[in-house]
Amino acid sequence: MGIHILTLCYLIASVTFILGLKMLSHPTTARKGNLVAALGMAISIFGTIFLFEHRVDGESAHLHNLPLIFAALFIGSAIGFVSAKKIQMTAMPELVSLFNGMGGACAMLISVIEFYHYQFTATPSPNDVLYLTHKLSTLSILAITSGLVIGSISFSGSIIAWGKLRGVVKDRVFKGQRALNMLLLIVLVSSVVILVGITPSVSYVSTESIDPLNAISQTFQYISNLHIYLFYGILALSLIYGVLFVFPIGGADMPVVISLLNSFTGVAAACAGFVYNNQAMLTGGILVGAAGTLLTILMCKAMNRSLLNVIVGSFGGDAAGAAAS
Amino acid sequence: MHTFLDFFHQHVEIIYIVILSVFLGIEVIGRVPSVLHTPLMSGANAIHGVVVIGAIIVTGQAQPDNYPALILGFLAVLLGTLNVVGGFVVTDRMLEMFKKKK
Protein backbone atom coordinates (compact mmCIF):
# COMPACT_ATOMS: atom_id res chain seq x y z
CA MET A 1 0.00 0.00 0.00
CA GLY A 2 2.65 2.48 1.14
CA ILE A 3 4.84 1.84 -1.85
CA HIS A 4 1.94 2.66 -4.16
CA ILE A 5 1.35 5.97 -2.45
CA LEU A 6 5.06 6.64 -2.81
CA THR A 7 4.85 6.07 -6.57
CA LEU A 8 2.05 8.62 -6.62
CA CYS A 9 4.23 11.02 -4.59
CA TYR A 10 6.98 10.71 -7.19
CA LEU A 11 4.50 11.39 -9.98
CA ILE A 12 3.26 14.52 -8.19
CA ALA A 13 6.88 15.59 -7.62
CA SER A 14 7.76 15.13 -11.29
CA VAL A 15 4.75 17.20 -12.35
CA THR A 16 5.59 19.98 -9.88
CA PHE A 17 9.17 20.09 -11.20
CA ILE A 18 7.90 20.56 -14.74
CA LEU A 19 5.32 23.16 -13.66
CA GLY A 20 7.90 24.87 -11.46
CA LEU A 21 10.41 25.22 -14.31
CA LYS A 22 7.65 26.43 -16.63
CA MET A 23 6.46 29.07 -14.16
CA LEU A 24 10.03 30.07 -13.32
CA SER A 25 10.55 31.11 -16.91
CA HIS A 26 7.80 33.78 -16.79
CA PRO A 27 8.30 36.96 -14.75
CA THR A 28 4.77 37.04 -13.29
CA THR A 29 4.67 33.43 -12.09
CA ALA A 30 8.33 32.87 -11.27
CA ARG A 31 8.08 33.15 -7.50
CA LYS A 32 5.06 30.87 -7.31
CA GLY A 33 6.82 28.37 -9.58
CA ASN A 34 9.69 28.15 -7.14
CA LEU A 35 7.26 27.39 -4.31
CA VAL A 36 5.43 24.76 -6.39
CA ALA A 37 8.70 22.94 -7.08
CA ALA A 38 9.68 23.20 -3.40
CA LEU A 39 6.35 21.66 -2.37
CA GLY A 40 6.87 18.74 -4.76
CA MET A 41 10.36 18.28 -3.37
CA ALA A 42 9.04 18.15 0.21
CA ILE A 43 6.41 15.58 -0.78
CA SER A 44 8.98 13.33 -2.47
CA ILE A 45 11.51 13.61 0.40
CA PHE A 46 9.05 12.83 3.21
CA GLY A 47 7.33 10.21 1.07
CA THR A 48 10.68 8.45 0.64
CA ILE A 49 11.49 8.58 4.35
CA PHE A 50 8.19 7.11 5.53
CA LEU A 51 6.95 5.00 2.63
CA PHE A 52 10.03 3.57 0.90
CA GLU A 53 10.25 -0.21 1.15
CA HIS A 54 13.17 -2.48 0.32
CA ARG A 55 13.68 -6.20 0.63
CA VAL A 56 15.42 -7.65 3.67
CA ASP A 57 15.43 -11.46 3.99
CA GLY A 58 12.75 -11.68 1.37
CA GLU A 59 10.39 -9.39 3.26
CA SER A 60 9.76 -5.76 2.59
CA ALA A 61 11.04 -3.38 5.24
CA HIS A 62 10.96 0.35 5.72
CA LEU A 63 14.13 2.42 5.86
CA HIS A 64 16.04 2.38 9.12
CA ASN A 65 18.57 4.82 10.61
CA LEU A 66 15.76 7.39 10.66
CA PRO A 67 17.23 9.45 13.56
CA LEU A 68 20.45 9.83 11.57
CA ILE A 69 18.54 10.86 8.45
CA PHE A 70 16.45 13.40 10.35
CA ALA A 71 19.55 14.82 12.04
CA ALA A 72 21.16 15.30 8.62
CA LEU A 73 17.98 16.82 7.21
CA PHE A 74 17.67 19.20 10.13
CA ILE A 75 21.30 20.36 10.09
CA GLY A 76 21.29 20.70 6.30
CA SER A 77 18.05 22.69 6.32
CA ALA A 78 19.25 24.97 9.10
CA ILE A 79 22.58 25.76 7.43
CA GLY A 80 20.97 26.12 4.00
CA PHE A 81 18.17 28.36 5.25
CA VAL A 82 20.35 30.66 7.32
CA SER A 83 23.10 31.06 4.71
CA ALA A 84 20.55 31.71 1.94
CA LYS A 85 18.74 34.29 4.07
CA LYS A 86 21.86 36.08 5.26
CA ILE A 87 23.80 36.26 2.02
CA GLN A 88 24.34 39.65 0.39
CA MET A 89 22.39 40.17 -2.85
CA THR A 90 25.59 40.54 -4.82
CA ALA A 91 27.02 37.30 -3.46
CA MET A 92 24.06 35.15 -4.55
CA PRO A 93 25.66 33.59 -7.66
CA GLU A 94 28.56 32.26 -5.59
CA LEU A 95 26.12 30.75 -3.10
CA VAL A 96 24.22 29.07 -5.96
CA SER A 97 27.53 27.64 -7.14
CA LEU A 98 28.29 26.36 -3.65
CA PHE A 99 24.87 24.71 -3.34
CA ASN A 100 25.34 23.17 -6.77
CA GLY A 101 28.64 21.73 -5.59
CA MET A 102 26.87 20.22 -2.55
CA GLY A 103 24.39 18.50 -4.89
CA GLY A 104 27.28 17.14 -6.95
CA ALA A 105 29.00 15.92 -3.80
CA CYS A 106 25.77 14.21 -2.75
CA ALA A 107 25.61 12.32 -6.08
CA MET A 108 29.31 11.45 -5.73
CA LEU A 109 28.83 10.09 -2.19
CA ILE A 110 25.84 7.98 -3.24
CA SER A 111 28.01 6.30 -5.89
CA VAL A 112 30.83 5.76 -3.39
CA ILE A 113 28.50 4.16 -0.85
CA GLU A 114 26.86 1.95 -3.48
CA PHE A 115 30.27 0.76 -4.63
CA TYR A 116 31.37 0.31 -1.02
CA HIS A 117 28.50 -2.17 -0.59
CA TYR A 118 29.91 -4.21 -3.47
CA GLN A 119 33.34 -4.31 -1.88
CA PHE A 120 32.01 -6.44 0.92
CA THR A 121 31.79 -9.60 -1.08
CA ALA A 122 34.72 -11.27 0.70
CA THR A 123 32.61 -12.58 3.60
CA PRO A 124 29.10 -12.29 2.31
CA SER A 125 26.02 -13.49 4.08
CA PRO A 126 23.59 -15.17 1.71
CA ASN A 127 21.34 -12.12 1.74
CA ASP A 128 24.17 -9.80 0.80
CA VAL A 129 24.98 -12.03 -2.10
CA LEU A 130 21.44 -12.02 -3.35
CA TYR A 131 21.35 -8.25 -3.11
CA LEU A 132 24.72 -7.87 -4.82
CA THR A 133 24.15 -10.39 -7.54
CA HIS A 134 20.86 -8.81 -8.28
CA LYS A 135 22.17 -5.30 -8.47
CA LEU A 136 25.71 -5.50 -9.80
CA SER A 137 25.07 -5.54 -13.50
CA THR A 138 26.99 -3.86 -16.27
CA LEU A 139 24.24 -1.34 -16.34
CA SER A 140 24.21 -0.47 -12.66
CA ILE A 141 28.00 -0.17 -12.54
CA LEU A 142 27.74 2.15 -15.57
CA ALA A 143 25.10 4.24 -13.83
CA ILE A 144 27.08 4.32 -10.57
CA THR A 145 30.32 5.28 -12.30
CA SER A 146 28.65 7.93 -14.46
CA GLY A 147 27.08 9.43 -11.36
CA LEU A 148 30.48 9.37 -9.70
CA VAL A 149 32.29 11.07 -12.59
CA ILE A 150 29.69 13.75 -13.29
CA GLY A 151 28.96 14.40 -9.61
CA SER A 152 32.65 14.74 -8.74
CA ILE A 153 33.39 17.07 -11.66
CA SER A 154 30.41 19.17 -10.69
CA PHE A 155 31.49 19.22 -7.04
CA SER A 156 35.12 20.23 -7.49
CA GLY A 157 34.30 22.54 -10.41
CA SER A 158 31.61 24.36 -8.43
CA ILE A 159 33.90 24.79 -5.45
CA ILE A 160 36.53 26.39 -7.70
CA ALA A 161 33.85 28.57 -9.34
CA TRP A 162 32.72 29.61 -5.87
CA GLY A 163 36.28 30.43 -4.90
CA LYS A 164 36.77 32.47 -8.05
CA LEU A 165 33.63 34.51 -7.50
CA ARG A 166 34.73 35.16 -3.93
CA GLY A 167 38.13 36.19 -5.22
CA VAL A 168 39.90 33.48 -3.22
CA VAL A 169 40.96 31.53 -6.31
CA LYS A 170 42.69 33.33 -9.15
CA ASP A 171 42.57 32.35 -12.82
CA ARG A 172 45.32 29.79 -13.29
CA VAL A 173 46.75 29.42 -16.75
CA PHE A 174 49.78 27.41 -17.74
CA LYS A 175 51.24 26.07 -20.93
CA GLY A 176 49.59 23.00 -22.38
CA GLN A 177 46.62 23.22 -20.04
CA ARG A 178 44.16 22.44 -22.78
CA ALA A 179 46.15 19.40 -23.89
CA LEU A 180 46.37 18.22 -20.28
CA ASN A 181 42.60 18.57 -19.86
CA MET A 182 42.00 16.62 -23.06
CA LEU A 183 44.40 13.89 -21.96
CA LEU A 184 42.79 13.69 -18.54
CA LEU A 185 39.35 13.41 -20.10
CA ILE A 186 40.50 10.60 -22.39
CA VAL A 187 42.07 8.69 -19.48
CA LEU A 188 38.92 9.24 -17.46
CA VAL A 189 36.58 7.95 -20.15
CA SER A 190 38.76 4.93 -20.94
CA SER A 191 38.99 4.05 -17.23
CA VAL A 192 35.19 4.09 -17.05
CA VAL A 193 34.97 1.91 -20.16
CA ILE A 194 37.46 -0.58 -18.68
CA LEU A 195 35.68 -0.66 -15.32
CA VAL A 196 32.34 -1.28 -16.99
CA GLY A 197 33.88 -3.73 -19.43
CA ILE A 198 35.42 -6.00 -16.77
CA THR A 199 32.14 -6.19 -14.88
CA PRO A 200 30.21 -9.20 -16.14
CA SER A 201 26.56 -8.64 -16.79
CA VAL A 202 24.35 -10.27 -14.19
CA SER A 203 21.24 -8.20 -14.68
CA TYR A 204 18.03 -10.19 -15.05
CA VAL A 205 19.07 -12.57 -12.27
CA SER A 206 15.99 -12.80 -10.13
CA THR A 207 16.45 -13.04 -6.37
CA GLU A 208 14.10 -15.99 -6.14
CA SER A 209 15.61 -18.39 -8.60
CA ILE A 210 19.22 -18.09 -7.51
CA ASP A 211 21.20 -20.75 -5.67
CA PRO A 212 22.96 -18.93 -2.78
CA LEU A 213 26.06 -21.14 -2.73
CA ASN A 214 26.57 -20.79 -6.41
CA ALA A 215 26.00 -17.06 -6.10
CA ILE A 216 28.77 -16.72 -3.53
CA SER A 217 31.33 -18.28 -5.83
CA GLN A 218 30.07 -16.04 -8.61
CA THR A 219 30.24 -12.79 -6.68
CA PHE A 220 33.87 -13.42 -5.73
CA GLN A 221 34.99 -12.72 -9.22
CA TYR A 222 32.83 -9.63 -9.69
CA ILE A 223 34.78 -7.29 -7.48
CA SER A 224 38.51 -7.67 -7.90
CA ASN A 225 41.20 -5.33 -6.65
CA LEU A 226 41.33 -3.92 -10.15
CA HIS A 227 37.72 -2.81 -9.78
CA ILE A 228 38.53 -1.06 -6.55
CA TYR A 229 41.67 0.69 -7.83
CA LEU A 230 39.88 1.76 -10.99
CA PHE A 231 36.88 3.07 -9.09
CA TYR A 232 38.82 5.24 -6.66
CA GLY A 233 41.21 6.25 -9.44
CA ILE A 234 38.24 7.49 -11.42
CA LEU A 235 37.00 9.38 -8.36
CA ALA A 236 40.36 11.15 -7.97
CA LEU A 237 40.70 11.91 -11.69
CA SER A 238 37.17 13.35 -11.85
CA LEU A 239 37.84 15.67 -8.93
CA ILE A 240 41.09 16.86 -10.55
CA TYR A 241 39.38 17.29 -13.90
CA GLY A 242 36.66 19.46 -12.34
CA VAL A 243 39.32 21.76 -10.88
CA LEU A 244 41.35 21.99 -14.11
CA PHE A 245 38.19 22.50 -16.15
CA VAL A 246 37.20 25.66 -14.29
CA PHE A 247 40.70 27.04 -13.56
CA PRO A 248 41.38 28.80 -16.87
CA ILE A 249 37.89 30.23 -17.39
CA GLY A 250 37.67 33.96 -16.92
CA GLY A 251 35.78 35.42 -13.98
CA ALA A 252 33.20 37.15 -16.19
CA ASP A 253 32.20 33.82 -17.73
CA MET A 254 31.56 32.27 -14.33
CA PRO A 255 27.72 32.37 -14.49
CA VAL A 256 27.84 30.36 -17.71
CA VAL A 257 30.13 27.78 -16.14
CA ILE A 258 27.95 27.54 -13.04
CA SER A 259 24.94 26.96 -15.27
CA LEU A 260 26.84 24.24 -17.14
CA LEU A 261 27.91 22.54 -13.89
CA ASN A 262 24.32 22.89 -12.75
CA SER A 263 23.13 20.81 -15.68
CA PHE A 264 25.96 18.31 -14.95
CA THR A 265 24.60 17.80 -11.44
CA GLY A 266 21.17 17.26 -12.97
CA VAL A 267 22.56 14.42 -15.10
CA ALA A 268 24.37 13.00 -12.05
CA ALA A 269 21.07 13.01 -10.16
CA ALA A 270 19.44 11.19 -13.08
CA CYS A 271 22.22 8.54 -12.98
CA ALA A 272 21.51 7.98 -9.29
CA GLY A 273 17.83 7.81 -10.18
CA PHE A 274 18.67 5.04 -12.62
CA VAL A 275 20.51 3.10 -9.91
CA TYR A 276 17.42 3.15 -7.68
CA ASN A 277 14.93 3.07 -10.55
CA ASN A 278 13.44 6.21 -9.02
CA GLN A 279 11.17 8.24 -11.30
CA ALA A 280 11.31 11.50 -9.36
CA MET A 281 15.12 11.55 -9.49
CA LEU A 282 15.15 10.51 -13.13
CA THR A 283 12.69 13.13 -14.38
CA GLY A 284 13.98 15.86 -12.07
CA GLY A 285 17.58 15.17 -13.04
CA ILE A 286 17.03 14.89 -16.77
CA LEU A 287 14.78 17.97 -16.80
CA VAL A 288 17.45 20.05 -15.10
CA GLY A 289 20.13 18.50 -17.32
CA ALA A 290 18.26 19.44 -20.50
CA ALA A 291 16.92 22.79 -19.32
CA GLY A 292 20.29 23.65 -17.79
CA THR A 293 22.13 22.95 -21.02
CA LEU A 294 19.71 25.10 -23.00
CA LEU A 295 19.93 27.82 -20.36
CA THR A 296 23.73 27.72 -20.61
CA ILE A 297 23.50 28.24 -24.36
CA LEU A 298 20.93 31.04 -23.92
CA MET A 299 23.20 32.76 -21.39
CA CYS A 300 26.09 32.57 -23.84
CA LYS A 301 23.89 34.06 -26.54
CA ALA A 302 22.85 36.89 -24.23
CA MET A 303 26.55 37.70 -23.86
CA ASN A 304 27.08 37.33 -27.60
CA ARG A 305 29.41 34.39 -27.25
CA SER A 306 29.29 30.72 -28.11
CA LEU A 307 29.58 28.02 -25.49
CA LEU A 308 32.69 26.61 -27.12
CA ASN A 309 34.17 30.08 -26.94
CA VAL A 310 33.63 30.25 -23.20
CA ILE A 311 35.04 26.80 -22.49
CA VAL A 312 38.08 26.55 -24.75
CA GLY A 313 38.35 30.06 -26.15
CA SER A 314 39.20 31.49 -22.77
CA PHE A 315 42.56 33.05 -22.06
CA GLY A 316 43.98 29.66 -21.12
CA GLY A 317 42.83 28.16 -24.40
CA ASP A 318 44.34 31.02 -26.36
CA ALA A 319 47.63 30.72 -24.54
CA ALA A 320 47.74 26.99 -25.14
CA GLY A 321 46.73 27.50 -28.77
CA ALA A 322 49.40 30.12 -29.25
CA ALA A 323 51.97 27.89 -27.64
CA ALA A 324 51.00 25.04 -29.93
CA SER A 325 51.24 27.16 -33.09
CA MET B 1 23.01 -6.52 -31.56
CA HIS B 2 20.95 -8.99 -29.59
CA THR B 3 22.27 -7.66 -26.27
CA PHE B 4 21.40 -4.16 -27.35
CA LEU B 5 17.83 -5.08 -28.30
CA ASP B 6 17.49 -7.04 -25.10
CA PHE B 7 18.70 -4.04 -23.14
CA PHE B 8 16.28 -1.79 -24.96
CA HIS B 9 13.41 -4.14 -24.27
CA GLN B 10 14.25 -4.40 -20.56
CA HIS B 11 14.50 -0.67 -20.02
CA VAL B 12 12.09 0.71 -22.56
CA GLU B 13 10.12 2.69 -19.94
CA ILE B 14 13.17 4.45 -18.56
CA ILE B 15 14.44 5.19 -22.05
CA TYR B 16 11.09 6.78 -22.88
CA ILE B 17 11.14 8.85 -19.70
CA VAL B 18 14.67 10.08 -20.43
CA ILE B 19 14.01 11.04 -24.04
CA LEU B 20 10.69 12.75 -23.34
CA SER B 21 12.17 14.59 -20.34
CA VAL B 22 15.00 15.92 -22.49
CA PHE B 23 12.54 17.43 -24.96
CA LEU B 24 10.32 18.68 -22.16
CA GLY B 25 13.23 20.32 -20.37
CA ILE B 26 14.26 22.14 -23.52
CA GLU B 27 10.70 23.10 -24.45
CA VAL B 28 9.59 24.25 -21.04
CA ILE B 29 12.17 27.02 -20.62
CA GLY B 30 12.50 27.81 -24.32
CA ARG B 31 11.25 31.39 -24.14
CA VAL B 32 12.73 32.57 -20.88
CA PRO B 33 13.56 36.31 -20.87
CA SER B 34 17.21 37.02 -20.15
CA VAL B 35 16.45 38.84 -16.88
CA LEU B 36 15.21 35.53 -15.49
CA HIS B 37 18.33 33.55 -16.43
CA THR B 38 19.94 33.66 -13.00
CA PRO B 39 16.78 32.87 -10.96
CA LEU B 40 15.95 30.04 -13.34
CA MET B 41 19.44 28.63 -12.97
CA SER B 42 19.07 28.86 -9.21
CA GLY B 43 15.64 27.20 -9.33
CA ALA B 44 16.93 24.37 -11.52
CA ASN B 45 19.83 24.05 -9.08
CA ALA B 46 17.35 23.47 -6.26
CA ILE B 47 15.38 20.93 -8.32
CA HIS B 48 18.38 18.70 -9.01
CA GLY B 49 18.71 18.55 -5.24
CA VAL B 50 16.17 15.74 -5.66
CA VAL B 51 19.32 13.59 -5.57
CA VAL B 52 18.90 13.77 -1.78
CA ILE B 53 16.24 11.05 -2.16
CA GLY B 54 18.96 8.66 -3.29
CA ALA B 55 21.06 9.66 -0.29
CA ILE B 56 18.13 8.98 2.03
CA ILE B 57 17.55 5.56 0.46
CA VAL B 58 21.21 4.55 0.66
CA THR B 59 21.49 5.72 4.27
CA GLY B 60 18.23 4.05 5.25
CA GLN B 61 19.36 0.75 3.77
CA ALA B 62 22.78 0.71 5.41
CA GLN B 63 23.28 -1.83 8.20
CA PRO B 64 23.34 -0.10 11.63
CA ASP B 65 26.91 -1.33 12.23
CA ASN B 66 28.28 -0.31 8.84
CA TYR B 67 29.89 2.90 10.07
CA PRO B 68 31.66 4.04 6.88
CA ALA B 69 28.39 3.80 4.94
CA LEU B 70 26.49 5.55 7.74
CA ILE B 71 28.98 8.41 7.98
CA LEU B 72 29.11 8.95 4.23
CA GLY B 73 25.33 8.60 4.03
CA PHE B 74 24.84 11.18 6.76
CA LEU B 75 27.12 13.55 4.87
CA ALA B 76 25.31 12.88 1.60
CA VAL B 77 21.89 13.61 3.10
CA LEU B 78 23.24 16.75 4.77
CA LEU B 79 24.81 18.11 1.58
CA GLY B 80 21.76 17.19 -0.50
CA THR B 81 19.43 18.96 1.94
CA LEU B 82 21.71 21.98 1.87
CA ASN B 83 21.31 21.99 -1.92
CA VAL B 84 17.51 21.70 -1.77
CA VAL B 85 16.68 24.10 1.07
CA GLY B 86 19.39 26.63 0.28
CA GLY B 87 18.53 26.47 -3.42
CA PHE B 88 14.84 27.18 -3.00
CA VAL B 89 15.35 29.90 -0.37
CA VAL B 90 17.99 31.75 -2.37
CA THR B 91 15.81 31.56 -5.52
CA ASP B 92 12.90 32.98 -3.55
CA ARG B 93 15.06 35.85 -2.36
CA MET B 94 16.26 36.59 -5.88
CA LEU B 95 12.69 36.72 -7.16
CA GLU B 96 11.56 38.82 -4.22
CA MET B 97 14.21 41.38 -5.11
CA PHE B 98 12.93 41.21 -8.66
CA LYS B 99 9.42 42.22 -7.64
CA LYS B 100 10.59 45.21 -5.62
CA LYS B 101 12.49 46.60 -8.57
CA LYS B 102 9.30 46.53 -10.62
UniProtKB/TrEMBL annotation, chain B:
E.C. designation(s): 7.1.1.1
Membrane topology: Multi-pass membrane protein
InterPro entries assigned to the protein according to its UniProt record, in alphabetical order: NADP_transhyd_a_C
Domain NAD(P) transhydrogenase alpha subunit C-terminal intervals: 15-100
Leader sequence segment: none
Transmembrane residue ranges: 14-32, 44-63, 69-91
Enzyme class, spelled out: translocase
Compartments (UniProt record): Cell inner membrane
Keywords linked to the UniProt accession: Cell inner membrane, Cell membrane, Membrane, NAD, NADP, Translocase, Transmembrane, Transmembrane helix
Chief subcellular location: membrane
Known catalytic reactions: NAD(+) + NADPH + H(+)(in) = NADH + NADP(+) + H(+)(out)
Role according to the record: The transhydrogenation between NADH and NADP is coupled to respiration and ATP hydrolysis and functions as a proton pump across the membrane.
Protein name per its UniProtKB record: proton-translocating NAD(P)(+) transhydrogenase
Organism: Paradesertivirga mongoliensis
